[in-house]
Design a protein that fits this description.
It is a multi-pass membrane protein. Keywords: Cell membrane, Glycoprotein, Membrane, Receptor, Signal, Transmembrane, Transmembrane helix. It comes from Hypothenemus hampei (Coffee berry borer). With about 850 residues, this protein is an alpha/beta fold. Among the domains are: about 180 residues, 3-Layer(aba) Sandwich (Rossmann fold); about 210 residues, 3-Layer(aba) Sandwich (Rossmann fold); about 100 residues, Orthogonal Bundle (Helix Hairpins); about 45 residues. The protein is about 45% helix and about 15% strand. Strands 14, 17, 18, 19, 20, 21, 22, 23 and 24 form a 9-stranded mixed beta sheet that branches. It has an 8-stranded mixed beta sheet with strand order 7-6-8-9-10-11-12-13, with helices on both faces. Strand 6, helix 6 and strand 7 form a beta-alpha-beta unit. Helix 7 packs across helix 9. Bound molecules: 2-acetamido-2-deoxy-beta-D-glucopyranose (11 copies).
């Protein structure tokens, strides 16, 4: 219980700023600040007027309760809590100071102030600047600026010399003055001389001369043109001629010598081009009826009337509410102070808009050129730019906008439908068709990009499909892909992935502007730039070549691989020469004679010596060893040599056993040419690569071009690549599709891609040459590149990695077991040895037979002694 009371008290304390007695019990209190210093000699009359009018109005409009008023003659007052309305008549500076206090106390603030005063925020106060007739331009520009209707950092003001100097000064001030929220702008001034010339042609040429010097790069591209109506057309023409109305610049024409008999400025629309940023503000002041002057007294009366009527309404509403519920309930639901303030503010604003008559003749209209994408709409009336009313301005309540002043900067293409052209060319453009062949959707990298563009530039699109091109390219892949799994096999088999040969019909359509954008990926080439323009590249494709995967070399001759040929040769020579050397040293040695040892056989023949050396080499030793020291030294040295040779051979052989030798792969174009005797090659026909190498002066490319040999049948070509006899040059991604396809079919990786990547082919979308939107589109593409979306989309459509993608070419062998492949060489040696042995034995046999015959003949002869 106690806690509850404490809570309630705390709540009441908390909401104190909002606690305010009901209007039914107490009179509302209005503070009227009439600044004596600001009004000077008018002070007396104005105060009297207010008092007089209040007496009258209270009687007339405030029938249900009273209103207490407090008068102040100076603005520095303490805004007490029991006030609810503040009427201030003071300078701009003091008005803003008062407003700060009124805002915290939730007062309804009605400020009557001087001209060129930034308005108080329209959702919390009412500002009425007292503007003399014909002096409204500075206030107008200031209002547009404070309401962020144009946001320009730099402004080029072009003005006609009939503007009075003090007005010009005020215009510049209102554009440049530093305000709370908006930053100040830099201003360049260009005076258009018209007064000094009689002849209108001189006037025009002088204007043109002044405009000739303008360089938007240095002074900014935002132009504010303050001229008479009759000059607007000429200036628009000059601006176009001098290329000042390009896509980056914004033009705002302020025309003051018009009146309400000028209904709109649609006559200028023929001067607007696609993509221009041009808007107009013009005087639409009513001239022909009698108008109330916008004097201070008029405004005071009007606003007091509005306030009292609103207050009366509020009282009536509150009493109705109080009648329906009990007193306690009413205390709980009655409006708080800020709610009541909002209610009163809305009522007063509504009253002033509907019934306000002070200065009600002065009115300006704002019109905007609607230019984006108009060219591509259905031809006829619609196809030229339009000029539309986007808002009005009145001195009493400022600008009221129905749309933005520069619609395309805020809203891009404003949801219009742009026609595009496309054809089936996966993975760039994929037309999804249903079973009866109707195109029902669009996919692919290009359409992913288009989708993103349409979101950011605010347009929708309709696609014109070129069907003949599919037939031409023999593309039967015109079939349904479901969203998730794009069929890579079909893509490689059927698709052309062709971007180089632009179909003429697409070029024509883009060139003639019957479509806004070619939604197809094309190779960016100089010769096509004559008819169309390309966007920034969406992708860069490189060429490489497809060759057979390098295989292991045969291991039959593994046992000779540890030594190179010359080593083997030296070794053989050494063995053969060492035999005779040993023989002669052995023979010449006098040791045997001295010791009287004379042995037949052994090292006494040259053959035995060679045989011995050979045996020693294979570490077999020999039966006979020399006895002489000289010969022993030779043999000893030989044993050392044998040790070195043997160890080296064994070690190397193990290494060769462990790491099988791989064929030297072809990795660069130069290597391809070096192998031209064993390998032929071909490249994608009608591609950028062909065009480039045709005119190339580089030897490598020249050779590739001249010596290429096409294999027309694709199957045969693939077989011959697999066999290592052919190499095919094409886009890397196309070759990847091919590899994937072969892998899926055979589950073996038979192909390898070259390491060399050459001939970068840049792929872009196409637009017409003079389109103003290229910069915008490029900007969006750059953004997509930066966040990596395009790369991701491309990867989505590429074949996924598999084991054939391994960059490393050598087969990794971790634990190789020696098998017959490795050992076959030694068996061959054995076989050869055996064959030779058989041959030799036959020869020996025959030799023996022959000798025997001779012997026998000799035996038969009569033995004579
Ligand atoms: C004040 O009002 C009186 C009568 O309404 C008028 O004669 C006088 O000129 C006014 N004074 C000023 C300074 O306007
Ligand atoms: C409220 O105003 C009426 C008429 O103006 C007056 O008669 C009455 O005394 C006022 N009441 C208070 C509490 O000030
Ligand atoms: C606007 O037009 C009215 C009527 O023609 C004219 O009196 C007034 O001076 C014009 N405003 C400006 C700023 O020129
Ligand atoms: C209009 O001006 C803005 C800002 O200066 C610019 O970004 C835009 O591209 C221009 N309009 C067109 C159609 O380019
Ligand atoms: C004045 O306005 C009325 C209608 O508002 C029109 O009929 C009349 O022709 C106008 N007079 C002139 C001189 O424009
Ligand atoms: C201005 O207000 C007066 C008085 O209410 C009215 O007679 C007149 O028609 C209004 N003028 C315009 C242009 O609305
Ligand atoms: C697109 O244009 C429409 C029509 O002007 C507009 O209402 C909408 O706000 C714009 N959308 C965006 C995101 O700018
Ligand atoms: C294919 O789409 C077209 C157009 O949407 C439709 O008329 C046709 O009936 C569809 N065919 C099938 C088999 O769904
Ligand atoms: C399309 O294929 C047919 C037969 O398959 C062939 O005769 C024709 O030359 C091909 N056309 C093109 C443009 O490749
Ligand atoms: C193509 O666009 C570039 C800007 O991206 C422009 O510099 C070039 O002049 C354009 N080419 C033609 C022929 O319009
Ligand atoms: C060694 O070979 C066996 C049988 O081929 C294999 O299972 C094992 O993974 C291999 N070890 C290494 C480290 O490669």
């Amino acid at each position: 219980m106690l806690l509850n009371v404490v809570l309630v008290l705390a709540c009441m304390e908390f909401a104190k700023g909002d606690v305010f007695p009901s209007l039914l019990k107490t009179n509302a209190t209005m503070a009227v600040v009439v600044d004596r210093e600001y009004l000077a000699e008018f002070y007396g009359n104005i105060t009297m007027e207010i008092e007089r009018y209040l007496d009258y109005a209270k009687r007339e409009f405030l029938r249900h309760n009273g209103l207490n008023t407090q008068f102040f003659a100076w603005p520095a007052i303490n805004l007490k809590r029991d006030l609810s309305i503040l009427l201030s008549i003071t300078s701009c500076l003091e008005t803003w100071k008062l407003f700060a206090g009124a805002e915290t106390e939730n007062l309804l603030h009605i400020a009557i102030s001087e001209q060129d005063c930034a308005r108080l925020p329209p959702n919390s106060a009412i500002t009425i600047p007292i503007i003399e007739r014909g002096q409204e331009t500075p206030q107008l520009l200031l209002d547009l600026r404070t309401m962020d209707i144009y946001k320009w950092k730099e402004i080029v003001i072009m003005y006609q010399d009939n503007i009075p100097d003090d007005l010009l000064t005020r215009i510049i001030k209102s554009i440049t003055r530093k305000l709370a929220k908006t930053t100040s702008s830099g201003v360049s001034l260009i005076k258009l001389t018209t007064k000094t010339f009689e002849d209108i042609n001189y006037v025009y040429s002088s204007i043109r001369a002044s405009m000739l010097d303008i360089n938007p790069k240095t002074i900014g591209g935002n132009f504010l043109v303050i001229v008479n109506l009759d000059l607007v057309e000429k200036i628009m023409e000059f601006a176009k001629e001098l290329n000042l109305v390009n896509t980056q610049n914004q033009w705002l024409y302020l025309i003051s010598n018009t009146n309400n008999r000028v209904f709109n400025l649609k006559r200028f629309k023929k001067l607007l081009r696609e993509g221009d940023n041009v808007s107009f503000i013009y005087n639409s002041t009513v001239v022909n009826t009698t108008c109330d002057e916008g004097t201070m007294v008029c405004h005071i009366r009007e606003s007091l009337t509005g306030v009292l009527k609103a207050l009366d309404d509020a009282i009536v509403e509150e009493s109705e509410m109080a009648d329906q519920v009990s007193v306690e309930e009413y205390e709980a639901i009655r409006p708080t102070k800020s709610e009541r303030k909002r209610y009163l503010l809305e009522k007063v604003q509504k009253y002033l808009t509907e019934y306000g008559s002070c200065n009600n003749c002065t009115k300006w209209k704002l019109e905007a050129g609607e230019t984006w994408g108009r060219e591509y709409q259905t031809p006829g009336e619609n196809s030229i730019a339009d000029i539309q009313l986007v808002g009005t301005w009145r001195p009493s309540d400022g600008p009221s906008m129905t749309d933005v002043l520069f619609p395309h900067i805020a809203h891009g293409f404003r949801s219009i439908t742009l026609p595009l052209v496309s054809f089936h060319n996966p993975p760039w453009q994929i037309l999804v068709t249903n079973s009866s062949g109707e195109v029902i959707g669009f996919q692919g990298i290009v359409f992913n990009i288009i989708e993103e563009l349409s979101k950011n530039l605010n347009f929708t699109y309709s696609v014109e499909v070129i069907k003949n091109y599919q037939a031409e390219s023999n593309n039967s892949a015109f079939q349904t892909y479901n969203n998730e799994s794009v069929d890579f096999i079909n893509m490689a088999e059927n698709s052309y992935i062709k971007t180089y040969g632009v179909p003429q019909i697409v070029l024509d359509m883009v060139h003639n502007k019957s479509v806004a954008l070619g939604a197809c990926a094309f190779t960016i080439t100089e010769e096509n730039k004559r008819m169309i323009n390309f966007t920034d590249p969406i992708s860069i494709q490189t060429y490489t070549f497809l060759s057979a995967r390098p295989r292991e070399l045969s291991r039959a001759l593994l046992f000779i691989s540890p030594f190179a040929g010359d080593t083997w040769f030296c070794l053989a020579t050494t063995i053969i020469s060492m035999g005779p050397i040993l023989f002669y040293i052995h023979k010449m040695s006098p040791v045997y004679e001295y010791k009287g040892i004379r042995v037949k056989g052994g090292l006494a023949t040259i053959q035995n010596c060679i045989w011995y050396m050979y045996g020693a080499l294979l570490q077999q030793g020999g039966m006979h060893l020399p006895y002489a020291d000289s010969a022993r030294i030779i043999v000893g040295a030989w044993w050392l040599v044998v040790l070195v040779i043997g160890t080296t051979y064994c070690g190397n052989l193990v290494a060769y056993l462990t790491f099988p030798k791989i064929e030297v792969p072809i990795t660069t174009l130069q290597e391809l040419i070096d192998h031209k005797d064993s390998v032929s090659w071909s490249y994608a026909r009608q591609s950028l690569f062909e065009a480039l190498i045709k005119d190339s002066t580089e030897n490598v490319y020249k050779t590739i071009y001249e010596k290429a040999r096409d294999i027309s049948n694709k199957r045969i070509m693939i077989e011959s690549i697999k066999a290592g006899k052919h190499v095919y040059i094409d886009w890397k991604i196309k070759l990847q599709y091919l590899m994937k396809q072969q892998f899926v079919e055979s589950d073996v990786c038979n192909f390898a891609l070259g390491i060399d990547e050459f001939c970068e082919e840049r792929i872009g979308l196409i637009v017409s040459t003079d389109t103003p939107y290229l910069i915008k589109i490029n900007e969006e593409i750059r953004k997509l590149h930066q966040v990596g979306l395009i790369q991701k989309w491309l990867e989505d459509y590429l074949p996924k990695r598999d084991k054939c993608w391994k960059k490393k070419r050598s087969v990794e062998v971790n634990n190789h077991t020696v098998n017959l492949d490795d050992m076959q060489g030694s068996f061959f040696v054995l076989l050869i040895g055996f064959s030779i042995a058989v041959f030799v034995i036959i020869v020996e046999k025959m030799w023996f037979k022959k000798i025997n015959k001779k012997k026998n003949r000799r035996v038969i002869q009569p033995f004579v002694t």
